[in-house]
Structures are given as structure tokens and as C-alpha cells.
Amino acid sequence: MLPRLALFVASAVLASAQFTLPPALQAAQDSATSIVVSEPVTTYTNVSSIANMVSIVDQKGGAPSDSTRPGLPQQATKLTALDGKLVDATVPTINLELGGAQRREAVDYEQVFSGSKSGEPDAAIEGTAYLTYFLVSNSTYQLGLDECLAHCDETLGCAFVNLYYELNNPYLDFVFPEKSNLKCVLYGDVHNEEEKTDLGNELLPSIRTVIQQSSGYALQSLRKPADPAGYKLVFGPLSAANNAPQYMGFAFLDKYDVKACAALCNTRGADSNDGACKFFNIWRAVVNGKPATYTCAMYSAPTDASTATNTGQGDLQVTRSRGYVRINHIVDGTFEAYVCDDGDIFCFTEEAAGWVGSSPAGGQDDATIFHYAPYAHHGSSVALLGSAFGSDAYPGLLQPAWPITGLRHGRTYVLGFFHSSSYSGEELESDSFVTVWWGRSLVGNITVGYSTWAYYEFKVVAGRNNTLSFIGGQAPAYDFIDDVSLFLLY
Ligand SMILES: *[C@@H]1O[C@H](CO)[C@@H](O)[C@H](O)[C@H]1NC(C)=O
Ligand SMILES: *[C@@H]1O[C@H](CO)[C@@H](O)[C@H](O)[C@H]1NC(C)=O
Ligand SMILES: *[C@@H]1O[C@H](CO)[C@@H](O)[C@H](O)[C@H]1NC(C)=O
Ligand SMILES: *[C@@H]1O[C@H](CO)[C@@H](O)[C@H](O)[C@H]1NC(C)=O
């Protein structure tokens, strides 16, 4: 037993001696065994899981025939499934009004289907994205239709109306003040004649309601939704969904609501390897020609139309697929813009594109940017706090080279980054630290001693002085920072 133990101790001492080789001397990857090069975890979009859920979710509906009053505001967008489980929840309400409410201006509707002849039975639509209903003037059908389309014009997200008479409904005949049996039902998606499945129902014993002259009108062209605050449209509408890596999961929404999908992305828990949600893909699932649900797929890395390759499977068709990337207000947060001359694999600097490192009086290279893949979290470049040559123990100051732009005063942003303090090994890293400053306020203080790459995030409020500073490292306790992001939260 004893010799083996002795050998173990000897090699540990040898190893820790090698760790003191400072970062500026390019510690070879094999000698610095404490540097963990994280293998990128690749999780692709789980297409079959989404398709399975589409086949079981049921989010179709129409106007109620009960005491629910007409003209109620539409309900908040609902989640009907989340990560492969059916749910019934509303999307977390976060203030994303910055994206701007959009109203139609001049609108043109086209008839999708006409109703039965007067006096003949018909059926009402049961479809996705029901918004609300109104009772419109029943003196003539045309007058009611004009009023109905005007309601659609005024209702955010309305894309389609189903207009029909409902006979034998005592609420319409006697209770509601409109005294009209002509129902105008608003939807956020276009439906077709095959979705006329509501044949009326038995409201009073042995008296059925009867549907007549059920017609459908759709907007000629579906509007492009306004970009949600904090996001930019990168593609769409396409008939293919993203099949991309760094997939974080999906949700089904009860309507095609890009703001709701953005809210889900913003409130999604961070991925331990890739950080916050940075991209979402919203698309409509159409099964046998009928809209079934609206998928919101989330990713921890941005992607684009090149990965939009999933057009559907079997009866399921992908339609109206749009990709939105989350806007990062940090320029070159990955440090990848910094590369070496002559294509070298190793170099470092105090001033890189987008970043400036500085040392206190008497210090040298206390905050630097390195291009060397073994030091980086992802890619090849990374920032270091702590004297690069190990020549002093002063903390360094790392800041963006330019003012952070595009922030809205008073809004809350989430600052995220990866940190590692494993370079010199357990013992020598015990004094590692990084303080994070927003203007003159301390927002974070990382004193974890030895640590491999880990994700941190802090909320900051945009004010007049939006200065970001990292102060830390005291060689030989080194702190590495990578993949810095600043995203609008609410
Ligand atoms: C996809 O999701 C299903 C559950 O719906 C799961 O059984 C399967 O393992 C997942 N596939 C991958 C590759 O994660
Ligand atoms: C309009 O609706 C009311 C309430 O249901 C009904 O009493 C009336 O007969 C309808 N008028 C016409 C012209 O259909
Ligand atoms: C903004 O904050 C930084 C960092 O604390 C500070 O150096 C600078 O003087 C501040 N600028 C103003 C205008 O307050
Ligand atoms: C950060 O935390 C450490 C350990 O608790 C403490 O000694 C240090 O003063 C803190 N730094 C700041 C700036 O508050």
C-alpha cells in the first residue's frame, strides 16, 4: 500500500509545480491537467418528441354557447405543452411591450367558405387560436359581416372570422343586451370548411342549439409579426423548422404569438454548458391541412435558416416557421474576434477588438485577452484576470472597449458569462475572485476558489452609466472569463 501512496503524493506535487507555469508561457495542455477542456454537448432538436406531442395535444375550440358574455378581451397566450408533457398554463407575464402593438391598417378579407342556405343546418368552426367572440347586428347578414370584420380589424392578432346564426340559445335570445343571434367568432389563424365540426349543443334539456349560415373570412395576407423586444427576425416565414444543436426544449402555444415565445426563451433556465436561451423558432403545425398547434423551440446558441430542414413528417406539415435571435449588447462577448497574426495558435494582448484590460499601478498584464483554445470555454479566445506572467498578485480590470449601446433606460437586462478558476490547481486557486460591476454598483462577487467552467448571471438595470467591469484574479490564482452576454430580460 505504502509505495503506491507515496507515488501518488509525488505525482501530485509534481503536477502542482507545473501549474505554477503562468498562462503567458503557454502551459501545455497535457501538463496543466487541471485545465478542463469542456466537450461541447450537442443536443439536437427532438423532432420525434414534438411530432408525438402534436398528435395528442388538443387545443381546438370555438365560441362558448353558455353565459360567457360576448366581447371579452382575449385571454393571455396559453401553454398547452412543455418539454414533452401536456400542461395548461399561461405564459409567464413579462413586460415585452417594447416590440410594439401592431394593428392592421387597410385590410382585405377573402371568403374561405360560405355558409348553408338560410334555414338549413350548418356547423361552426372548432379550430386553434380562438380569440374571442362578438354578437353583431342580425338585421341583415351583410351588415353583421361588416361589423364582424371591423371587430377583427380592432383585435390584435385576429386573422380569421367565423360568422353564423345560433338558434335556440336563450342567452342570445333573452339575456345578453345585444339581442342578436348572429355570432362573430375571431381566430388568430385561418381555418377551412373541414374544421366545421361544432353542430350545436344541448343547452336546455331536449332543446338543441342550431347553427346556420356559417361562413369564414380570412385576411388576404398574414401580417409579419413585430419583432419581440430584445430579438431580431433572422428568417421566415419558411415551411421548415430548425433542426439545430444546442436545443433547450419546446413548448406549444395556443396561438402564433412570437412575444409569448420570446417570454419563454427569456425565462428559460440557463444551460450549464451554453448559458441563456439565445434563439427561438416558432412554427405552425398543420395536420391533414388543419392547424394543430404552434411550436416554440428554444436554443442556447443562435442558428439561422441553414438548419431549418425539418419540413414535417407523415401528416404533419411545418408552416410559418420563423427564427429570432436574441440581441447581445456586448460586442465580441466570446472574445473570438481576437486572433493571432500569422494564424498562430497562441498569443495574448491587453487590448483586443471590443475589450480593454488594465492593471493597477505597479501591476503588469493583470487583465488580458488570450487566443489559445485550451484556455477558452468555447472557441479559441478568452479573457484572463490575474498577472499573465505571474509577476504580481494585483487584480486586473477588464472592460468593454466601447460604451454599451442600444440599452433602454430603466429596463432590466441579464448579464451572463462563464468563469473558470482551475488553472493553478486546487490549492493555488483558493484566492481566486471576480467582482462584477455595473457602473459603480457591485452586482456580483465570485469567490469560489478552485472551479472549472461555470455559468453566472446577474440582473442589471440600464441607467445613464452603463459601464461593465470585471475586476479579479490575484496570480497565481487566475480567473478566466468567456462568453459574456447582455440580454434584455423585461
Ligand atoms: C426525444 O424525446 C423522447 C420523449 O418524447 C425521448 O424518449 C427520446 O429519448 C428523446 N430523444 C433524444 C435524442 O433526446
Ligand atoms: C336577431 O336575434 C334575436 C335574438 O336572438 C332574435 O330574437 C331575432 O329574431 C333575430 N332577428 C333576425 C332578423 O334574425
Ligand atoms: C461610470 O462608471 C465607471 C465605472 O465605475 C466610472 O469609472 C465612470 O467614471 C462613470 N461615469 C460617469 C459619467 O459617472
Ligand atoms: C467579495 O467577497 C469576499 C469574500 O466574502 C470579500 O472578502 C470581499 O470583500 C468581497 N468583495 C467586495 C468588493 O465586496
Automatic annotation (TrEMBL):
Keywords: Signal. It comes from the Eukaryota. Residues 1-17 form the signal peptide. This is Fruit-body specific protein a. The lineage of its organism: Eukaryota, Fungi, Dikarya, Basidiomycota, Agaricomycotina.
